[in-house]
Amino acid sequence: MFERRLWFFICGLGLLAVLIGARLVDIQVIRAGQYHDLVPRITPRESRFVRPARGAILDRKGRTLVSDEPASDLTMYYAVIEQNPNYLRTLARRMRRSGEIPAEVELDEAIEILRDSLLQTRQIVAEAAGISISMLSEREQAIVERVQAVKTFIRQKSPTISTIREESRWHAVLEDIPPKLAAELQLRLGNQPWVRVQPGARRVRREADELTHILGRIGGVDEKLLAADPLAGDDLRELRSGDFCGTSGVERLADPILRGARGRVVQDFAQGTEERVEPEPGRDVMLTIDADLQKQIYALLAEGVKNSQHPAGAAAVVIDVESRDVIAAVSYPTYSDADFRDNYDDLLRDRIRNPLRNRALQTSYPPGSTCKAIAAAEALDVGAVGPETRIHCTGALLPNRPNMFRCWIFNQSRVTHDETDTPAGQRAEDAIRNSCNIYFYRVGQMLGPERLCAGFDRFGLGRRAGTGLIEESPGVVPDDKWLQKHMRRHAEKADVWNWAIGQGEVTATPLQVANVAATIASGVWRPVVLVRDADGTPILGDNHPADVPISARALQPVRVGMWRVVNEQGGTAPGARLSDDVERYVMCGKTGSAQTQPLILNHRFVVEHPDGRREELLDISGEELLKRFPDPKPRIASRRANDRYPPLVEGGKLPAHAWFMGYTQTRDTPKGASPRGRVYAISVVVEFGAAGGRVAGPIAKSIAEMLLAPSGAKG
Amino acid sequence: MATRGMVREPSAMLGPARHGLFEFTGLGWGLALPVFLLSLLGLFCIHATDRLGAAGASGETEWIFAEWAAVLGPATVRQLAFILTGVGLMIVTLLPSYTRIGKHAYLFYGLVMAALVALIIDRYVWDVPDWLIPVRRNTRRWLTLGSYFSIQPSEFMKLGLILALARYLRYRDSYRTWAGLVPPFLFTVAPMLLILKQPDLGTLLMLLPVLFCMLFVAGARKRHLVTVILAGAALLPAFYAWGMSDYQRDRIRVVFMQSSPDERWHMDKGYQLRQAKIALALGGLTGEGYGRGLFLEANTQLLPEENNDFIFAIIGHQFGLIGCLVLISLYAVIVICGVEIATKTNDPFGRLLAVGVIVMIVLQALLNVCENIGMAPITGITLPFVSAGGSSVWANFIALGLLVNVAQRRPMMMMRKPFEHRDG
Lengths: 715, 424
What we know:
By secondary structure, chain A is an alpha+beta fold.
């Protein structure tokens, strides 16, 4: 029996051996090809990327606004930063063997020599960088802590890992060293193999604070940016985690062009070859913006805001109507790079000035009376009113509710437009000239919410104007879908009255409003262009919208009305009339004073602590408030708006944003015809500036004069 | 019995049995040749993977072989030292008769158990100084004296278990009854529990098959054996669910995820196995040649534990399918010689000892190969006589010593086999 069982045993082993043999044949012969294909993936080759220089951003006249400047990092080997005793010992032994330290020196002594020269290295580095040795040690300590934190995290997940990648890497001890200092350090530290000066680049912005918002920033890539990368799949051009790329503004929009292609050095250890692909620097892009003009407009806005009763912010946009180039998009106030770096929190918490916001295209305001031009055009287009249809200004819309839905002139001086100007009632062009609310309440009524919203849509409200910047806000056209989604209601009777005069839910950005002016001037709504590549081809964002033509029949009275607003005695914007310096040109425009709610500066919160204690606190937002407390966080029991800007005055009027939109045309352009000459569309908004005609109009006038002045007169 | 002649064939060809202390019998030589070849192959492969040389050695200590290490590579020198001392231990094992060794079987088993308990004490009772019981890769497997000496008791547990089982099972009635089966089970399960807590899954999983094979060969009742298998099969899922830590479960998952398209898995948990298979596949039929091929010429280590658990893949890489099959047939020679020794011995203790040793060696070899080709979870079993390592080399050589010891002390043949004539 023993032998029979042994025989069984051997047979069992034999069977197993046959199975193993079959599996080996499978791996080594039959499916060997499959595994061969995996070889490139298992990094037998060391592949290193070389960062390309990022392209520059120029203004429309070719001046460099942002570019990469050469700058280097000083890096140290991690084990040296950490002063790992085992590594130092190995290093000392190796140096003794190679003769850098005399062979007769004892190992312990060699380690001391090594430590001395490391100390010397640190002294040189600290001295060159102009920092103290202790500051340098602090930086090194921070690197060690960061790496150890990563290591702890990784080892919690896989306890068998003993060293992590970061431990065999070089870490930057000094960043952005200018070339001269880099050369000096290279010279002085060149013989010390644990320090390397690694060439790189630094993004430098040149006196372009007025363009900060538009230019945007660079930051590390995150999952979202990786997922949205249009060049994903091209391993030299795609984003990789750890890269820097544009995270906002034009840096982001034009990132695929600016970033260039990385170089690659592949060392194949199997074949002992090195293969180099040189990096391809990113291409430059050109803003359609004129940096000088931008700067001058910024100064104008600063002046306008300073004179305002409630200074906050302002924005202005200038569009070249012919090409739809945005030649200025100014947001006041702005911030400097230094502020962003050092006082980010202050910038974030400044609710009134809100400098981080790009008001020109990120903030949407109620458009106020500028909207009346759209309502009129739409009503004329669909035939709700004819160009000669007259509507009486009655002071208040509803005879039985004299306190509501009144005309502005009735509010101001208890008269009606019928009494002051047009006893027979107003035509469309009169209503625009007078900015008569009653006319537009009635026009809104005739159009109804659907057709009115369709009109807003045709003039580009509620959708992005096409710069492609992620900051661009679409604003709001309160059509039924929007109302359902955001207000859970349908349009009510009074809504359409409000919307027709640009109040209520409808909002628009200054960029959109400027494009409305451009649309009125040219007869076609067209997306704007902000960035062009070196060949002049526009760089457009995703979902670039198509042109929307508007009939000349509808626009003719609107154009006449807008001419009269500025150029006729008694128009609402006499301040926007161009001075005689620019004799060939006139401005056509529409004012707006958009009533708005004051800003809420902070809230009064009642928080309930986990132990049941209640406390009343002030903060700008719930999020910010909770940051103050450690875990477990208290619960916010209630919140109430506290400080407002401008402050509420008992019985006072709501504050209003001052608007002006307009376009330029030659003096000899026939009335109501499409403008001739150099046509610029301009929009200006001054937050809490009150009257559009008085505050925003003159700013627009100055802008137009800068644009149109004979080249000798203005820089 | 029809099979008898086939089993006896090798010995018939190798000549009649002789005995004497250092006079190796034909079977002794039959064992020596494959073991010598395996050790040599192991040494050469370890040398080939020792690419970092002296510079890359963790080398915290200045050891006496530093000069040699600089030339041959530290791992090679270390392995050479272990093999030489291993052969020494084998010769020491040969000196007394195995029956005398057998009398101390329980003592040996007890000593190894004590060592295993000591490792557990460090984890659960009080902290033993690190120079005595170091924690490496979050496991406590070694007993050390500073950096001068270290052994892995679990490797010797395999030997201890074989000795104790052979000692216990040598009387027929002790394993043909239910009650008689309890002690062998306890012998096996007790160290398994201790090793589980080190943890060292590979060694642990070796012990149960050793028990099973020894019971089977010793002639335990079939229903008992079936019960053992069923019990083992029933225990496995429970063990998987509660007895294992996450990374051990991952090791098992690796086997089933081999053809998964998830590249992240293959770069993380499935990394070792895929690298091993790529190494084998690159070897192809005839191999890349000694010291050649991507896995040996790249200046980074592409295969973790390449001179230890995964040395088989490195062998396949260099010598191809043919090399792998030759390696397997070397183990086959060991098995055949071992089986021959077992059949030629009348002493039940000797038989069981021989069978135990053979089972231990061949199971380690096959499991290691299976791990390399994705037929078994990667548990860290070494390839006997080939893989780098101290305790495992020693334990295997001592086991070999026991086997040869049994071979040398077979009872006198009463008559010469027919048709066998000695000339000259």
